[in-house]
Specification:
25% helix; 32% strand; single chain; alpha+beta; 6-stranded mixed β-sheet; 3-stranded mixed β-sheet; tt1808, chain A
Length: 176
C-alpha cells in the first residue's frame, strides 16, 4: 500500500483565522515575517507619497494603499507593498484587477515577488507591475500588453485610467 502525500490546500476562510501576517498562494500559506527592513519601509513610504502626489496633481480619483489583501481566487490572497485603486473597495479585500501594484524586494520574498507574484498579477490582469530592488537601487516596470502578457517598459509614465496619466521618479524614493 502506497502512502498518500497530503498537501495542504487552504482557502480564504482559513486565512481569516490565522494570527500574524500571511499570504496564501494556490492554497499554500507563506508567513510574512520577519518585518520589512527599515530601508524597505522608507522606500514604501516615499513611493506611496510620490504616487499620491502624482495622482492628486493629475486630478485622478484614485487612492494609494499599503498593503491590503488582494483576493485573486479563493485559495490565493496576497498583500502587495503598494497598490493604486480607482474605485471604492467594498469589504476587507480587493477581488478584481486594479491599475498598478508595487513589490519591494527583500531577501525573504525576492524569488516569490519576481516569479510567483509576477505570474499571479499578470494572470489577474493588473496593468502595471513594478518591482523595486533596494539592494541594487533598481526598478523594473512591466505593462500588460494586448495579449495579456507583461512587457518591460523603460518609461515611468503610467496611464492609470483613460483620463489619468502620472509620472513617478523612482530614483527619488531610492535615496534613503
Amino acid at each position: 500500500m502506497e502512502a498518500t502525500k497530503l498537501i495542504p490546500n487552504y482557502s480564504y476562510k482559513d486565512y481569516l483565522n490565522w494570527e500574524g501576517r500571511w499570504e496564501l498562494i494556490e492554497g499554500i500559506p507563506f508567513a510574512m515575517s520577519p518585518m520589512a527592513s527599515p530601508r524597505h519601509q522608507l522606500i514604501a513610504n516615499k513611493l506611496g507619497r510620490l504616487f499620491d502626489e502624482s495622482l492628486e496633481s493629475a486630478n485622478c480619483n484614485c487612492q494609494v494603499y499599503q498593503p491590503i489583501d488582494v483576493k485573486i481566487k479563493d485559495n490565493t490572497v496576497v498583500n502587495p507593498d503598494i497598490l493604486i485603486v480607482c474605485e471604492e473597495i467594498k469589504g476587507q479585500y480587493l477581488d478584481k484587477p486594479f491599475p498598478l501594484v508595487v513589490e519591494i524586494l527583500s531577501p525573504s520574498t525576492r524569488i516569490k515577488d519576481q516569479v510567483t507574484k509576477y505570474s499571479l498579477y499578470e494572470e489577474f490582469g493588473i496593468k502595471y507591475y513594478i518591482i523595486v530592488d533596494p539592494e541594487n537601487n533598481s526598478v523594473q516596470v512591466y505593462v500588460l500588453n494586448k495579449e495579456g502578457k507583461y512587457q518591460k517598459q523603460k518609461k515611468y509614465i503610467f496611464r492609470i485610467k483613460d483620463e489619468c496619466k502620472i509620472e513617478v521618479d523612482f530614483q527619488e524614493a531610492l535615496k534613503t
